[in-house]
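Dear colleague,

Thank you for sharing your sequence with our group. We've completed the structure prediction you requested, and as agreed, I am returning the results in plain text so they can be pasted directly into your records. Please verify that the sequence below matches your submission; if there's any discrepancy, let me know and we will rerun it promptly.
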Amino acid sequence: MKEICLNFDTVNYVKDNAGIKEFTSSSDCKSIVDECYKEVLLEDFKVCYGTCLSKKRSLPCKVVKMYFVIDGESKKQERNLEDSYLFYCNEHNIFYANSNEIPSLCSERCQILEVSLKPVFFEKYAPDCDLFDGFRKQMQKDISCFVGDCNYPITAEMHAIIEEVINCQRKGHYRKMFLESRVLKLLMLQMKQIQDCMEQVDLSVFVNLKLMNQARDLIEKRLKDPLTLSDLAKQIGTNECSLKKGFKKVFGTTVFGYIQNIKMRKAKDLLLIQKMLVNEVSDYLGYKNPQHFSTAFKKKYGISPSYLKDGKL
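Please find the predicted structure tokens below.
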């Protein structure tokens, strides 16, 4: 498969009156990739988000990257890391990259958000603890590395911030303030979650995380015809009570809430990118009545799916 190469050093940015630079890449060349990708460059960090199949980006400098896979799968392979690093849907991590090129190979349509931070900016906010002290030392030695030994689930609160960043409609100075505040909050949530997980010495915590990730995978495979809580608990080898408590703790929302969030994000993608009709999206997501789907969509986004579909925003 061919790869799309985006060289961030040579692209032409559009600059607003607050100094924010923006670049959008899109392609509908079906033989290679169906891609829509945007990057927003501020003084201390760069926010990139979009949907793509396969890409290889050239980084302008050594960076700390906050990496979130919202949908699909992404395989990170950096030349100075011993192994490739696979991200599944709804996972995140933080890593330091010291090379000029970080390929990101997506096995299917992959929706991501990544924030590239200047190392000095990251160090300013990283907590004083053994975990992040070790990460700092690796950075100072210019060694590519991840903060966590595994990836971590994107919580409901993280998803909400990610959606705010992607859908930000503010302009100029207020857009700059908004993005800076959201990136800091997202970084805080990432660091806190990783630190909390690493400081847990009880093995049961890691077993619970593994079980809840299995539950998440089953939910996403059965999105149109979801399992009952009882059947889902049996599938992963636990009981209904433990499932409800564990899922809420790991993902920050209930099983039902998670299903609704996934369905609504999928619905938006089907309406905007795949141009499906509202009735088709409703049927695809397993709603028996299109009106029920429209009600759920409006409750989530504040607008009806037909309003979004007709491009009235």
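Summary note from our side: The longest helix spans residues 172-199.

Kind regards,
the structure core
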